């Protein structure tokens, strides 16, 4: 799973940072979390490709959605035929429909808008799902957690051979959870040669939020937590007033959740040239890997050890 930060600025873009957008490529399927102004250009600039299957919107503030009309039209101009799903908070469908049809445009492919309540499942695939996470901002908002199913345990080939299992298809059947019968009539069960299930990966994206318990719970043992870190400690009161988090507050959430890595994003332009200040404050509260995300940065999310 690969994460590309397309936009990491706060509400106002800068020459170095575009508004919020994060692209996740999982096994070749691309998901876009938020779609701020200029997202399609960032996709071209950083080579992620346009072929997204789902857009997950955290809330209706412009810096998170104003890139939707341009992307919708460009996908149409590129002869897209596959459906596009856009997941949005409750009572947001009308606003997103207006963006999809901006300027009277009617895309020639299906665009399906799904209103999803916080704390529910937005997308349920064969071996992973995307859950919504309750957040606290100045408007209806929610984050998202991409959670993979557990993987099969490790296959003990040496023990399988000791038990007389012939090399070949029976190995795969056992690893897939199926018992097999040997030529001598013995039945070998998977738990004889396959270890305990191994966890899949978990990625959590908060969008704009205050530090909240629901994110702590959703990000438990997350491999990567992407958290609002708009302000430094010197603006903690402003963070409370505007429904955002400081870098230290984001780090405290990550620490309580037991996340492996923390990416700080939605960064106020007032800290331009002082990004290390945010990182230093966050590292004071979080012992895991912590970094200030930048536009174009790509991060691989490996399976847990």
UniProtKB/TrEMBL annotation:
Cofactor annotation remark: Binds 2 Zn(2+) ions.
Function noted in UniProt: Zinc phosphodiesterase, which displays some tRNA 3'-processing endonuclease activity. Probably involved in tRNA maturation, by removing a 3'-trailer from precursor tRNA.
Catalytic-site annotation from UniProt: 63 (proton acceptor)
Domain Metallo-beta-lactamase: 18-266
Sequence similarity: Belongs to the RNase Z family.
Residues that bind Zn(2+) 2: 63-64, 208, 266
Subunit details: Homodimer.
Matches recorded under SMART domains: Lactamase_B (SM00849)
Entry keyword set: Endonuclease, Hydrolase, Metal-binding, Nuclease, tRNA processing, Zinc
E.C. numbers: 3.1.26.11
Name by which UniProt lists this protein: Ribonuclease Z
Molecular function via GO: 3'-tRNA processing endoribonuclease activity; identical protein binding; zinc ion binding
InterPro entries in alphabetical order: Metallo-B-lactamas, RibonucZ/Hydroxyglut_hydro, RNase_Z/BN
Catalyzed reactions: Endonucleolytic cleavage of RNA, removing extra 3' nucleotides from tRNA precursor, generating 3' termini of tRNAs. A 3'-hydroxy group is left at the tRNA terminus and a 5'-phosphoryl group is left at the trailer molecule
Essential cofactor(s): Zn(2+)
Pfam families (alphabetical): Anti-Pycsar_Apyc1, Lactamase_B_2
NCBIfam families cross-referenced by the UniProt entry: PRK00055.1-3, RNase_Z
Binding site for Zn(2+) 1: 59, 61, 137, 208
